[in-house]
Design a protein that fits this description.
The protein is of the alpha/beta class and about 325 residues long. About 35% of the residues lie in helices and about 20% in strands. The structure holds adenosine-5'-triphosphate, iron/sulfur cluster and magnesium ion.
Length: about 325
Amino acid sequence: MTTNEATATHQPTPHVVVEDLTVRFPNRNQNPTTIVDHVSFKLDRGSITGLVGESGCGKSVTALAMMGLVDHAEVSGIVRIGNRNLIGMPEAALRSMRGKVVSMVFQEPLSALNPVLTIENQLAEIFRLHQGVSRKATRKLAADMLARVGLSDPERRLRQYPHQISGGMRQRVLIAMALACKPKLLIADEPTTALDVTVQSQILSLLRELQQEMNLTILFITHDLAVVSQVCQKVIVLYSGRIVESGTVVDLFHHPAHPYTRGLLDCLPSGHQPGQPLSEMPGLLPDPAHRPTGCAFRPRCQWADTACGEQEPPLEPIDGESDHLVRCIHPLTGAQT
Ligand SMILES: Nc1ncnc2c1ncn2[C@@H]1O[C@H](COP(=O)(O)OP(=O)(O)OP(=O)(O)O)[C@@H](O)[C@H]1O
Ligand code: SF4
Ligand SMILES: [Mg+2]
C-alpha cells in the first residue's frame, strides 16, 4: 500500500461539505443582516456532530439553509452532500432531495406535526410522495417504521392524532417521518429539548442506534453541551453566526481554547457542589445588526485586550495541522482551561 493509499484509508472523504454558508435577511431600514456568516465545516459519513451555541446564535437558520428552506433571504456558499451542491438548486430538485438525501427533525415537535391529521396520514404522505407505493403498502411501512423507532402498539398509534400521544412519542414519530425514506444526512434540531431527562436519554439512545444501523450522518443541534458529550464525536461551537471553535468532543471538553466554549462548559451542572448556584455567563449575544468590531465575543470576554477589537480573528488550527480550530487571538492554554 502506498503512503497516499494509507492516508486515504484513515481519512475518509467527508460526506457533507459546508463551505462559506452565509445567510442574510433583508432589513427594512439598513443593510441586510448577516445571521450565518461564512460557516464552513465537514461531516464524516456515519458520524454525529454537535452544533452548539446560545439561543439566537444561528443554529436553526444554518440547518434550514442546509435544507434549502430559508425564504426571503440571500443564501450563498456550498452545501455539498455526496457530489451534489444544494445551494442554488432548483426547488423541484431540492424537493426530491429532501427526505431521501437529507432530512430534518424540527425544533418544535408539536408544531412540526399537523394537528388535524392522524399519524398514519402524516407518515403515509411521505411514503406516497417519495416512494409511490399503494395505500395498503404504506400502512405496513408506516407501522414498521413506528415499531423501528420504539413505539409500542404501532397499529393503534397510526390511528391517533398528535395531541393524543406524549411528547416523547411525538418526537419518535418525527424521527420516523424524517427517516422514512432512508436519508443519508439527518439534521436533528434540538430533538430532546422539550423532553424530561428520562425520555431525553431514550431518544438519544434511539438516535445512536439508528445512526449505527443506517450509517447515518447526523448534525445534532443543541444548546446543551451535556447532551453533546453523550452522543457526538465532534462539536462545532457557533457564536453570533460564526464558528468560534470546532474539534473532537475530547478536544473541546478537555482543552477548550475559546473563552466562549470555556464559559459554556463552566455553566454545566456537572462539577457543581450541591446547593451552590449554577454559573452563568455574563452578558448577551450581540444584536446581529450591530456586532462589535473585531471579535464578536469581546464585550463578554475576560481576556479581551485592545488587539481583540482591531479585526475579526480568523478560525485557525490550534497548532500545525490540528483539526481543533479556534477563532481567538489569545486562545486558552493548559493552565487556563
Ligand atoms: N426569517 C428571519 N428573518 C430575520 N431574522 C431571523 C429570521 N429567522 C431567524 N432570524 C434571526 O436569526 C437569529 C438566529 O436565529 P436561530 O433561530 O437560527 O437561532 P438558534 O441558534 O436556533 O436559537 P434557539 O436555540 O433559540 O433555537 C436570531 O437573531 C433570529 O432573530
Ligand atoms: S479574540 Fe480576544 S476577545 Fe475574542 S475571545 Fe479571544 S481573547 Fe476574547
Ligand atoms: Mg433554533
